[in-house]
Design a protein that fits this description.
Elements (H helix, E strand, L loop, with lengths): L3 H19 L3 H20 L4 H19 L14 H14 L1 H4 L1 H22 L7
Helix pairs in contact: 1-2, 3-6, 4-6
């Protein structure tokens, strides 16, 4: 995924080097250049939130650790996939094995996965607090 700062930098460059020069009217041209200046200022204020990915990874690690305690679910290997891809494989495997696992084990694993998905969604929806 492209970082926020890199994305904003690309938009600023497009405004300055592509969009503004293509505009003939002086007022809209000046507005395009000003938008680039303002966006450049805003991009310097943006702080990348590395903690969000760390929290999501921690939630996934806790999920897989908890599922080891469920006897039938512990058989899920997950292959070489990591993170969210492994979670996707787990969900698919869980539904494929539902009949063999029994409703109690399936429901327990399903509820635990839903809690993890909720935690991950909460991390995605975090908004940096203003100082």
């Amino acid at each position: 995924m492209i970082s926020t700062k890199q994305l904003m930098s690309e938009i600023v460059n497009s405004l300055r080097n592509v969009i503004a020069p293509a505009i003939d009217e002086p007022y809209p041209k000046a507005q395009a250049y000003m938008a680039a200046v303002i966006l450049e200022f805003v991009s310097r204020q943006v702080e990348e939130r590395a903690d969000i990915e760390q929290q999501k990874d921690a939630a996934l690690d806790a999920l897989f650790d908890d599922l080891v305690n469920l006897a039938d679910i512990s058989r899920f290997g997950g292959g070489q996939a990591e993170g969210e891809m492994r979670l996707g494989h787990l969900i698919q495997w869980l539904y494929e094995q539902r009949g063999r696992l029994g409703e109690a084990a399936f429901a327990a694993a399903n509820q635990r996965i839903r809690r993890t998905l909720r935690l991950m969604l909460d991390q995605e929806l975090k908004i940096a607090k203003a100082d």
